[in-house]
Amino acid sequence: MTETPQGTGSAGRMPQLGLRANWRQFALLVLVNAFVGAMVGLERAVVPLLAEQDFGLASRSVILSFIVSFGAVKAIANLFAGRASERIGRKAILVAGWLIGLPVPFLIMWAPSWNWVVFANVLLGINQGLCWSTTVIMKIDLVGPARRGLAMGLNEFAGYLAVSLAALASGYVAATYALRPQPFYLGIVFALAGLILSLFLVRETRGHARQEALLADARGLQQVTAGQPSFARVLLLVSWKDRALFAVSQAGLVNNLNDGMAWGLFPLFFATAGLPINEIALLAAIYPGVWGVSQLATGMLSDWLGRKWMIATGMWVQAAAIFVIVSTRGFGPWAAGAVLLGLGTALVYPTLLASVGDVAHPDWRASAVGVYRLWRDGGYALGALLAGVLADLFGITPAIAAVGGLTFLSGIVVAFAMYETLPGRRTHYPAWQADVKSV
Fold first, then answer.
1. pLDDT interval class at 433 (50, 70, 90)
2. Are the C-beta atoms of 400 and 269 separated by less than 8 Å?
3. Measured between alpha carbons, how far is 79 from 94 in angstroms, rounded to an integer?
4. Averaged pLDDT of the chain
């Protein structure tokens, strides 16, 4: 008889895998991730304008420094969250992330200088890295291999719909009252709600991951799953050695590179055309709103159609959307471009996470997710840095266009480098299996 894995629940029962068997905890984690997304959504429309109007900043590079700090710290936090959640548990990391996120709205409300806002985004990056990573990992744990794309679609739907609604709400509060402190009162509510739910209602899911590993071993994979690879080995596999994981990592990086650009430059781009704050907030909300809602369909669709071509197509649609925005003028065409950008991102975002789950073994999947999210969220820092420097040197419009070109090239890399990862359609062994089978 096999030993009951940690986290099996009452009466020592083996954990059941699947969305139906775990729908209560899954739904709770969807709600928690909505609060995670809402925390960052507060900043999408307000903070770039705050930099210009409250702090008098002119340099685009300095204005986008808050995104650089956010992205760099979030990337590292993702890496820590993945590995630590395998060692000390998912729930502990989730609760820690909320505790670190609590001061963020207070720091921005009371900031006497821009450095306070940058520091607040360091804490926000840690909050997002720890909380979003663990909710992703826990949902993958619960559903097992059969509906991974659907699970990631639901996760990202909740997170990015909340980003959209929080951006819209904060923008309208700012238009009615002021850029601060009123919009950030919402952040206090979001942080407290996420912490309370995580602390008292969320349950540990490591036992589900272990159960999936035992089931995989029972199907004859013992020869390739014995032992946990070193962290350096996982880092190498996800970053470079496995073709699919390399393609996924670079696509994630470029996806968030253009999102970092959109976060920092789009509000300034729209403001130079004379748009009022409420219309800028609406444009800032359309893109993540379409992105969030569409993932309900695209995550599930990738379980049927496969991962590779959805990712490549999504990158090309994003590039087209960026060129629409940069080459047109007026609220209507920009709203159309924001819709297109949201659709392209929705094709990519849950599918990338599902691909990592397809390839990585359950015993070290959390670490693999952490490495992927290191590269993906590093794109925020790189995108904000690149966009800021290009905007200072050449102007906002050429900076946006350059990011669109990089996004198109990323889709080409996926088309040529990635193999299909969907179970049942895979034509190549993942690198970690191929190495063992060649011995």
1. low
2. yes
3. 14
4. 89
Q: What is the pLDDT of residues 79-100, one digit of tens each?
A: 899 889 888 999 999 999 999 9
- Please name the residue that has the structure tokens 């360091």: 122
Alpha-helix runs per DSSP H in 11-42 = 23-41
Burial label for 222, CB within 10 Å (0-12, 13-18, 19+), is exposed
What pLDDT score does 373 carry?
87
Contact yes or no for 60/265 (Cβ under 8 A): yes
Backbone angles phi, psi at 419, to 5 degrees: -100, 160
267 preceded by a cis bond (ω within 30 of 0): no
CATH class of 15-216+228-434: mainly alpha
CA 203 – CA 222 distance, rounded (Å)? 29
Query: 112-132 pLDDT, tens per residue?
Result: 999 999 999 999 999 999 999
Angstrom distances, CA of residue 145 to CA of 137, 152, 202, 222: 13, 12, 22, 17
pLDDT at 429: 66
Element (H, E) at 423: none
Q: Is the pLDDT of residue 6 over 70?
A: no
pLDDT confidence tier of residue 407, bands split at 50, 70 and 90: very high
Burial-class residue 381 by CB neighbours within 10 Å (0-12, 13-18, 19+). Answer: buried
User: 176 with 53: CB under 8 angstroms?
Assistant: no
- Neighbouring residues of 51: CB distance < 8 A, sequence distance ≥ 6: 57, 62, 63, 66, 114, 117
Find all residues with CB under 8 Å of 391, minimum gap 6, and list them.
60, 61, 265, 399
First to last CA, the chain: 31
Enumerate the domain spans of the chain. Answer: 15-216+228-434
Q: What is the CA radius of gyration of the chain?
A: 21
Considering the chain, what percentage of its residues have pLDDT values greater than 70?
A: 92
